[in-house]
Amino acid sequence: MQSQDVAKRPAASSGTVIDVEQAEAALVEHYPRLVRLAYLVLPPSLGRNRRVLTAHALTQRALPRGRASGDASVIPAQQNGGGRDGDPGYAFVRLQVVRSALEAGLPLKRRAWPKRSQLPPLLPHVWGLRLFPRSGGADELALDQRLSALSGPARAAYVLRGLEKLPDPQLRKVLAAAGVADPAAALTEAAGVEARDALLASPEFDPCSLHARPTDLMRRRQHLRAALAAAAALTVCGALLGLPGDGWGPDGAAAPSYAQNPAAEAALNPARLERVAPAAWESSARTDFSVWPARGDLVEDSGLLRRALAVWARPGESVQVSATPGTPSGAPPGPPQLLYAGTVDQARVVLLYDGLRIARYAEPKDGTSGAALDFARVDGARGAEASAVVLSRADGNVRYLTAPWVKKAAERDLLKPNTGTMDLTLSADGSTSPLAGPPQTGACTSWNVLQVDDGSGTRLLSDLGELIPAHLTVGRPAAPREATGAANLRGWAPFACSLASVRSQGVRSVNAWQFAQQALPDASGSATWVCTRADTWRGGGTRVLAQFRTPGGTYGAVAAKAENSPACGSRDPHVLAGVLWKSGAGSWYLLAAGTKDTASVAASGGVRGSAQGPLLAVRTKQGAQAQLKGTLEDGRGISGLR
Description:
Elements: E1 16-18, H1 20-29, H2 31-41, H3 48-60, E2 73-75, H4 88-104, E3 129-133, H5 138-148, H6 152-163, H7 168-177, H8 183-190, H9 197-200, E4 210-214, H10 217-242, H11 262-267, H12 280-283, H13 302-313, E5 320-323, E6 337-344, E7 347-353, E8 357-364, E9 372-377, E10 388-394, E11 397-402, E12 408-413, E13 421-424, E14 435-436, E15 448-453, E16 458-462, E17 470-474, E18 481-482, H14 486-492, E19 507-519, E20 526-536, E21 543-549, E22 557-563, E23 576-582, E24 588-594, E25 598-605, E26 609-612, E27 615-620, E28 626-632, E29 637-639
Parallel strand pairs: 5-9, 17-19
Antiparallel strand pairs: 1-2, 3-4, 6-7, 7-8, 8-9, 10-11, 11-14, 12-13, 12-15, 15-16, 16-17, 17-18, 19-20, 20-21, 21-22, 23-24, 24-27, 25-26, 25-28, 28-29
């Protein structure tokens, strides 16, 4: 609901004259940014599919109508700034996008005739599909909910401030030019929401990178049935007369659209679900999800299982669907394996496995409204990676379903390695009592993980906002070890909070490797260099952090990072990183370290120096910029992480 009015468009009496070519060039160059801006300002009540299409439509209609100066549109003078704002064409189309997005959120009853922006867009349009951006994590969902509670002008103020980095004086002028009656009130309301500028650029709010789902297939069939029946005879006759000898169309031997398919029908039949015998895992050489038995108090509830399979195949608009990056969310190719069906807290939960993915369907105990469907990729999972699946999250707590070979489960705070563990109750069906999850926002004062014991050893698993917790290990990338034992736990503790940077990224495992120790120039002790590498289920998207910890430091500091890099991995276990460090006497140094087989390290740019061996310490000044190069003992060069 809008709490502030959008006034009529003010007349622009002076400014820069823009022709259509200039505006078009700006729109094409910055199209993804403008569409994101429109999507964020539009009211969430439109629904994700209509918001996507409307955002594209409003952006594409932002050009001025005329091509000559007589038909030019006028830009408010305050738009002339640096960067993108230095381009009057971009400033014009941005203003048009904001204005039309605000108008789209006005109630229809305010005008006898609705404006074009208030109606569903005619173009662009995709028949038979619903489009929506990729689902984000808990932080993105929380921000979207906060933005939905704001008025349209306040939402525009928040987005322009966070995405466009406009200062408040210029922001007031832009809002006024867009037709906002009280820009100051909009800024005040927007200030009540915590600034999360990085989240505004996340895939959750990118209407140019989309997922697709079918619309209501049964309704479409009903609407088309009469037309198809009337056209059937003409279509058949035309096909017979027009097609060459063998009579095959462009789809070859494929069956007609919407034809019944035995495999697809079997995948939706709860009676055909794969159910593994309870003791099968005891005699199997496999330690993956394929040997998990079906457990839970609702495994015989055919109605619940039928709903779960149907929603998996065709989720409705009200179903909240999420998937880890790189995970397909289409229907199962055949009857999946039932892992669990039971009552968890205030919900009914079903876990299914199709060899590539685990799907979790959850619905409230008192109905199906608010159902959710989550996917996680688990191909190749075995041992620790197949030891637990998230059953539910509620009130900051997490409840897991453990593998049948798990003997004990416990909760451990990774930041406090000396405090021991708190045992968790394992029910007869393998589900744990709830444990506190890692912090979602605010200060990182604890990082609780799940510790499981399968009889042959203990493993640490960390919830990163997905169905499958990440497996934590330590040691050299070629031979990582379990992150348990007193020394390994103490080694992980300073770097536990860095796990938040890989939340909701489809992470399979995270390894922490101490690759160097370096004596500090002021003789205050030795600093530790640790590389944490997060590998994903899809292979790509790896995240590498080189972290630096001074003696007695509570937390490690991120010195360098990389994405999709082989550094610190089993294929290329080398890394070189540097950091500016201030001694106790107030002197600044560039400190750099590589793996032990680094023959020499050199710095160039704002800092110059070199050293034989894997360590470098060069005196410098605050804010200096340097490039690092190293040479390995085999003669190969290595660059510093950035």
